[in-house]
Fold this sequence. Notes:
The complex is a heterodimer of chains A (119) and B (206).
Chain A lengths: L4 E6 L3 H12 L5 E6 L2 H10 L4 E5 L7 H11 L4 E6 L4 H9 L3 E4 L4 H8 L2
Parallel strand pairs in A: 1-2, 1-3, 3-4, 4-5
Chain B lengths: L6 H26 L3 E3 L3 E6 H11 L4 E10 L3 E8 L3 H9 L5 H30 L4 E3 L3 E5 L1 H8 L6 E11 L4 E10 L4 H15 L2
Antiparallel strand pairs in B: 1-7, 2-7, 3-4, 3-5, 3-6, 4-8, 7-8
Amino acid sequence: MPQALKILLVDDSRVARLTLKHLIKECGQEVEIQEAANADEALDLVKEHTFDKALIDYNMPGRDGIELASEIQKIQPDLALVLVTANVQDAIQERAAQQGMKFLGKPVTQEQLNQLINS
Amino acid sequence: MSPIFSDDEQETIVELMNLGVGRAASALSQLVKDEVLLSVPKVDFVQLDTAEDTFKQLLPKSLAGVTQAFDGFISGKAALIFPEERSLELVRIVVGNELSASEISELEQDTLAELGNILLNSCLASLANLLKREINTSLPEAYSGDHKKMLEILCDQKDSLIMLVQIDFSLRQRNLQGYLAFIIDLRSADGFHIALQEYLADLLGP
């Protein structure tokens, strides 16, 4: 039996996390999802658990999603990181790519999530 | 004509906002699963007291919505505005009907903030991309109150000359209307001038 895909969701908005969770569960894969509302919570989880993918908001209190990605990579270098944000500026997308992150613009569609989860 | 921007520049601002709001409307349409109808953006250059009169004429008395501050080559605040009595209905449309009334109510502020975050960022990011500049946006803040309170939130500098860009939108299948307003502080308009001139020069070619 295939192992469940372990996913970390990081977004200060509970509604944004609910929306992503709903879409991920519709992807047809066995998943285990953990949530963090800010960078500190996310780092605590990354220190304790191994994840396959982390979906991270950009605009959060404290540190932004790209700064958080840089800290996560020191702990779990192989974790696939995705920046999920409505801030679709070219400059942000370029910085995300330089940090080795994939990029998804909000609102995320089911098709985009399917591709991401099943890749 | 505005004394601050030339006719060409003002026309460019309207067109850029049109493109930005078009992107935001597409995002909203995806979230509410309904067609979003947009007005042509209206750009006014006003003092704070004039802005209050304008808001009084245009908007319902009790308002709810989200504001988001931004800075970079332009600075100011953007607002997503709805009639307050329709706010819960909008939240229900976005989060779906499976949740109970108390859950919907509990998620109201968070949903409005995320909705504002998506719409306002879509618009501002599009503007920054088109002008090849960068804008930093703050965290969205949900609010409710009357025009006066909203203007106090939007304009913290009483002497500001502001550029008010106002767009009305509505959902085709539901009788729900909202407004987007961008208050741009023109005391630091130089960067905006340069960005607009470069954009126009690119369009017109050598």
